[in-house]
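Handout, page 2. Input:
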Amino acid sequence: MNPLITLAIAVAAILAAITLGYAGLCWISPFTRCQRCAGTGHTTTRFLHRPRACRRCDRGMRLRTGRRVYNVFHRLRSEAVR
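Output:
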């Protein structure tokens, strides 16, 4: 076999494994910890001020990007079937 074809097959297999792994992670655990508030749900803007609710998440957890994409495609498909 040609070494370039072997390399292409190996790269494609690695990319497929990474993609399927992330899809499985989004399926099993759709939420992740918010990076802005470190999962607490509160942010402090200034020293000695009361903490405020995080504007990105409101509770410390955010929907993963892959799960958000899945939800959009699922919604489009369900609306198209109707």
